[in-house]
Amino acid sequence: MIGKSKVTITWLARQFSDLQSIRPLSQGGQKQVFSALHPHDGDVVLKLMHPNADIKRTEREIIAVTQVQSARVPKILGCGTVNTHIGTCFWFREQRIQGPTVRERLSNGPFDIPLLLRLALHVSEALAAAEDVHIVHRDVKPENLILDRVGDFWLIDFGIARHLGLESLTATANAFGNVTWGYAPLEQCRNIKQEIDGRADLFALGVTIFECATGTNPFRAGARDVLEILRRVEKGNLPRLQLSFPSTGEFSDLISTLTQRHRIHRPRSAREAYEWIKEICDKEGIQ
């Protein structure tokens, strides 16, 4: 599946006879991703895992998406295994959301205020739903957020989600946790497991909102390597947002609080953060 072992569209069409218009979307070290049309489910995404992929993490991803009851998270519609020329591969099919990722949308420049507020509202709603079932996404970033054709945001890719009620899959002895550098908070970077909860996702959301508002992520911009990014996260907070709209002061306070270096200074829960954001959005007429 990877490199010379990629599966072909013709082979996929034979294995998944219920899918039509199969097209490649992306591939990485763990999986290949395809778009397709299903007779009952409509537009879908088919994810085909490499035989050497961490199957436990794949199973955790499916459990997470199934348990998180949110209209902002694409639904998993089917899963199973398929035999390939390089071994047995796990696959799952999920709802496809048509639209650009936030990273792609940022290529057009910073977001306007209504779009920025909708991002904050919709993603915090998804994170509150995850927190309700004791799941930490752990990888909130522009690449894992999609803006659909009607202006709603979706949270995708629970591939490294932490299930607080299950044994951790990340080795405790690891110096660093599973992170995207520049979005993860200090406790996640340093793999301090007992401190990783929903407030880690709030930090990542705050950084993402800041980047969407300004077009830059100060933790990452110009950094030589991940160690410099880590030093920035350890030693400094983000600059205060300077925006211009009626609730700008309260919104800037919100982002500053979400991105506090120490989790004790962030909102106590994703639900609390969502309610704060919703209050601001209500004042601005944003849903």
Automatic annotation (TrEMBL):
| GO MF, one example | protein serine/threonine kinase activity
Name all Protein kinase domain ranges: 19-277
Signal peptide per UniProt: none
What Gene3D superfamilies does the record tag this protein with?
Transferase(Phosphotransferase) domain 1 (1.10.510.10)
UniProt xrefs under InterPro entries: Kinase-like_dom_sf, Prot_kinase_dom, Ser/Thr_kinase_AS, Ser_Thr_kinase
Q: Which GO terms describe its cellular component?
A: cytoplasm
What superkingdom heads the lineage? Bacteria
Any Pfam family: Pkinase
Q: What is this protein called?
A: Protein kinase domain-containing protein
Q: What is the lineage of its organism?
A: Bacteria, Pseudomonadati, Thermodesulfobacteriota, Desulfobacteria, Desulfobacterales
